[in-house]
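Hi again,

Forgot to attach this to my earlier email, sorry! This is the prediction with pyridoxal-5'-phosphate bound. I've pasted everything inline since the attachment limit keeps bouncing my files.
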Amino acid sequence: MNTIEKTDKYVFNTYGRIKKVFVKGEGSTLWDQDGKKYTDFLAGIAVCSLGHSHPAVTETISRQAATLVHVSNLYYTEPQAELAKMLVEKSFADRAFFANSGAEANEAAIKLARRYFNQKEGNRRYKIISMKQSFHGRTMATLTATGQDKIKHGFEPLVDGFIHIPFNDINALKEALLDDTVCAVMMEPVQGEGGVVAADPKYLNSVREICDKEGILLIFDEVQTGMGRCGHLFAHEIYDVKPDIMTLAKALANGLPMGAMVATQKAAQGFAVGSHATTFGGTPLVASVAITVLSIISQPKFLQDCRENGEYFREKLNSLKHNHPVIKDVRGKGLLVGMELDIEAGPIVEKCLEKGFIINAIQGNTLRFAPPLIITKQEIDSLIEVLNGIL
Ligand SMILES: Cc1ncc(COP(=O)(O)O)c(C=O)c1O
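Structure tokens for the complex follow:
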């Protein structure tokens, strides 16, 4: 039985997989089992931001694996302490909680917002406002927070206390807040799975003002947009708007499973000993890798290159518009890039794969590009040439 047959027979059938088996990666290049080479414009869905087999990541994994992998959060370990310090020093936050995925980080954020108000004023405020077309994960609370029906289908009854409003519509937020049992607004500064749709700067500033006025918490889900993906360490820096709570995952440990929730001291007071926990959160292994990743990605030159290459990429995609009227829109921030078409995007993904380029389709008609942040202009040029041919 080959790998595809074995997977299809023994693994739960929850993924619509493309029939390719990958065996090796280096930088922005992946190889399949037939030795065919691909340029990776997806990075494991915005995860391997330093590329595959980055020497510093490989060295950190090997060193830490040979030293200490796990002891449990009943004790202290230096990599977790140092990573929390770094995240705090590089963000608005005062404290970090470590989880193992984006959904878990968001679950922690939802629990923190609820418990913060529960400690302050009992059970009165518990509702979370989130956005239509948002994506926050697949646990029961995070799929309820998610603003896409297809994710929730068949899992009813959902978790109580979530309100969905249209994204980028400040009046909808004001109206939803006529309900005074809301404890937080939860949103992505740039919706990723929802089609690479950025918040309008005026809107995001007003959301912050309104949350302050109402005395409720603002949660930014930066699971996809954080860690340099949008050309700044965190996407909210583009807007100069700070949340009370932020969640991270995906690129945090360049492919090792890790999530984090960071919060201001004020919001963090919602949790005490025993409020929340996870066995694997912030193990020495994943935390040391995240330290390495954060040290590299947070360098100003690294982020500047990411912004420049993102702009270059969007310019090149926009230039395809002249010849290809099927392109409706090119958008995104940094190296999180979307191209909306007025045809199905799936066949374009397949054709790109045939030509040795890995890209992705979301929302039926949008191509999503989230390459390793080390992608070069030459690699971008090669993809543009191939897209030009295919379109
Ligand atoms: C914005 C956002 N939040 C949460 C998640 C869920 O993360 P995970 O798949 O690690 O649970 C994702 C995953 O795509 C995401 O894009």
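The radius of gyration is 21 Å. The chain is about 40% helix and 20% strand.

That should be everything now.

G.
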